[in-house]
Amino acid sequence: MSQTKNINFAVIRLAVLAIVVIVGVSSSFYTVSADAQAVVLRFGKPINTTNPGLHFKLPYGIDEVRIVEVKRQLKQEFGFGTAGGDNPWQYSDPGEQELEKSMVTGDLNAALVEWVVQYRIDDPQQYLFEVRNPDATLRYLTESIMREIVGDRTVDEVITVGRQEIENTASDKLQAATISYAMGLRIDQVQLKNVDPPRRVQSSFNEVNQAQQERESAINRANGEYNKEVPRARGEADRMISAAEGYATKRVNEAEGDVASFEALLTEYTAAPEITRKRLYLETMSEILPKLGKTVIIDEETKGLLPLLNLGGN
């Protein structure tokens, strides 16, 4: 009987040991997905950050692993909310959204501003341990910065021409604040959505905005006509100037050629006046006579002209 008890006790010890080994081995490995990083804690203190892949850790709860999706882009919406998001801090309650987007501009006008912040987790250890609930902190911080920026600008800048500058300024200030507070976040973009005047004056503002757009459209059309006609007129002027310059060059060359020809003829005439005179006469007649058609030349002393004419000929 005693021997049987010893055998049973040994079997139990072996079974317990096997369970302990199996639990230890199964809890000694963990896997990190491709879009995440893992923060390893030893007795509750972070000791390491690991990249995607299979990794080893101490078992039995000595090491604890927290997975953080660092490559996932997160967003927070202000003044409105898009259903279906799994980020609990993506948007506020519908009752608070109207208060979020109601702002006062620098010229003491009211504006309804809706915007989105897109961000990522850049440092998992900071994100998990440096700030309590960094997503909530980011939301409060973003609203404060946006109200400050809008409060420094006129309503026209906020609604029309200053949107891009407001987005860039908000992104820079928000990134600087997250670094200062060691929140472990990287701001990708701040984007303004709907920016409108208060509803009771929105129709009047739309009329003014439409008039401004029509004015800009008319200016653009006028500039288009200007840009089309001015180059055409300049081209026509350049063509006429080129033609005039070409004609002037031609006349100058012809005059210079005539002068050179006359000077050469004068030299010949000075050397042999009679011969030169006769040559000029013959050259002139050779140019004139072919243009006269059929020509009959007779001696001025001829008495009977009729017999000499071939009246039946052509």
CATH third-level topology of the domain at 74-197: Tetrahydropterin Synthase, Chain A
Binned strand content? 15-25%
Oligomer: single chain
Which class of the domain at 74-197 in CATH terms? Alpha Beta
CATH superfamily (homologous) name of the domain at 74-197: Band 7 domain
Helix content: 40-55%
Counting helices, strands and paired strands, the structural category is alpha+beta
Mean pLDDT, rounded to whole units?
84
Biggest sheet architecture:
4 strands, antiparallel
Based on Cα principal axes, name the global outline.
elongated
Number of helices: 8
Q: What string, H for helix and E for strand, traces the elements in order?
A: HEEEEEEHEEHHHHEHH
Rg value? 50 Å
CATH architectural type of the domain at 74-197: 2-Layer Sandwich
Q: Which regions are unreliable across 5 or more consecutive residues at pLDDT < 50?
A: none
Distance between the termini: 166 Å
Kindly state the number of beta strands.
Answer: 9
Function: HflC and HflK could encode or regulate a protease.
Domain Band: 27-209
Subunit structure: HflC and HflK may interact to form a multimeric complex.
InterPro entries: Band7/mec-2_domain, Band_7, Band_7/SPFH_dom_sf, HflK
